[in-house]
Structure formats: structure tokens, C-alpha cells
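Our example copied in:
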Amino acid sequence: MFADLHLDASFANLGDAGRRRRDNIRSTLTRILETAAAERVDAILCGGDLYEHERSGQDTLRFLERTFASVDVPVLVAPGNHDWFGPASLYARGEWSPNVHVFEEARLTPFELADGLTLWGAAHRAPAGTPGFLEGFSAPDSGVHIGLFHGAALGGIATEDRDHAGRPKAGHAPFRPEAVAESGLKFAFVGHYHRARDEATFLYPGNPDPLSFGERENAGLVIAEVGGDGKVAVSRISVATSRVADVELDVTGLTDATALANRGRELLASLEGSVRLTVVGEIDPALELDLTALGTLGPDLDALQVVSGALIPSYDLESLAEEQSIRGEFVRRVRNAGLDEAESREVLLVGLRALEGHPLGEP
């Protein structure tokens, strides 16, 4: 099972590297099917957001037709909010091989996987506003029933996961976690959240090829075995083609731009693909911190994003607060402004460096 591949994602901030990332996503889908075949699975499930409706065209359709036809097991797709089912969708326009089944209705409908084992799948029929699929649904009493859909589990997961633009994930087709068991389903395979999640009665596979930083966390292809009693045993296989890394550049102890650049180059030397470099540590007042210049340190990378993180100003704030100067007045006002520690630290850092003529650079 997999979900949230997002073929044709824009990667607008990557420039020319965006095309390579889109090619990587296609390669990852090929890897998914090849790995599933090698594992001798009985069916391949897709929990939606296979592609992006607004950006995908005929070439993507032909790629999907050919790729899905290359395996001789059922491929079952439950469209999500990005690849919603409609007359203009690739799903409706495609000439699919007999092994492909796309759920078309905005309610759970059955597909018999094996004798006594039924998969219930549903489709988003619009890019937003789809209600939950589990409320009001009741599986038959006989046999084992499992679910496949694209939806947002309510609760803690909903507050943590973000989309590939860094925004909190919207609550498309929301469901209460306890509603899975209440509906009579033994388990549900769900797409939407990009971080891998394993819960008692459902899971999110996570997106198999990273769309943004911080998404890996065991995301990939899920191999699931459903027992006769409905219990599900799960293993995960990494299938990502793209290489994405998050690293921190500690500036503590550095006093000049050359030393900073050398430390950055050492850190990046063994990395490839796309990297987010977060600058952290205790920053010396004399250090020129130009994030734009740091962005040139990885010429062989597909993309390098440089951001400022938890930077601590290396200033004697007690002494500064006693100065009868603009700088001293600034420190006193910030410290008396009622900000929390992180906000106060950031304002003091940016302000003091600006007063000295070398503000933080822009990436």
C-alpha cells in the first residue's frame, strides 16, 4: 500500500531541480510496483493523491496506464483531494488495463480481494469539502472487512502534519479514529498525512518520495498481511528515489566568514540531492552571517535551502542593559516587552546585529 505520491508536484522553489524531482517521483512509482511484485503481493493499494489534478496531463496518464499494466495483480485506487475523481480526471479519461480498479463513489463500496476478505474504498469527488467516509457506514457482519480511503484522522495527528508547502494539512474527509472499529472495519489503509503513522486500527504510509523536508520518518511502501481474524501485520520498505537531508550548521565559536564557509562545506561534502541547512548556535557579534552566500556552498547539490534556526546572541546582555545608549535602550525595551524566551532571543539577535551594521542575510 502507498499514498501521496503527488506526480507532477511543482517544486516551484527548486527551479530547474524541480524537473529532476518530478522525474524521481515517477521512478519511485516504478520502484513501488517492482518491489510489490518481488514481494508477491496479492494486490496493490493506493490511498489517493497519486497525481496533482491541476498539473497532470496526457503524458502522466500514459505513464500511469503503462506502469499499472506492467503488473499482473489488482491495482486499487481510492482518489484523494488532489487527484479527485471527476469527468476531467485522469481516472475517467484513462484506458486502464483490466487489473486496475478505481473507486468512483464518494462512499465506501466493496471490492472482493479474496474469499471472505472485502476491501471497501471511496473517492473524493471534489478538491475540497468531502465529508468523512466512515460516519453512517456499517460493514456486514460476516467476513473480514478493511478500508481504503483518503482522509484526515482527527486528534493529535491533525495538529502535527503539514503539506509539502509547509502548511497545516486541511481536514479533508475527516474521521474519528475510533470510527474505524465502530464501522465494522478491522483495519483501514489511509492516505493524506505525509508522515508515516501506525495506529491500532489504521495507518498512514507517508509519502514514498519526499516532497519537502522533514517527511521521511519510515515513509514508503507498506507491505501488509491480513490474517483470517482480521489482524494486520505490517512492514515498511523505503522506495524513495530522491535524496533529501536536513542538517544543522553550528556557528558557535566562529568569528569570520571564511571559517563559517569552511565549516559549511565540510558539512555538505558527503550529501547529495536537496538539503536544508539550518544555521544554529551561539553567534559572535563580529561574525557576518550572510545566508545568501551560504546558499552557494553546495554547487553539486540539486538544491540547497539555508534558513536561520535557534541562534543565540553572544552578547553580555546585563552590561548592555546598563548602557545609556540606543543599544542599551533597545535591550531594556525588549527585555521588558513580555516576550517569551525564544521571541526575545530572536528580536535581540536581529536588532543588535542590525545596530552594528551586519543584519542576518536573506536566503
About this structure: The longest helix spans residues 17-38. The chain has ten helices and 16 strands. The CA atoms of residues 142 and 184 lie 10 Å apart.
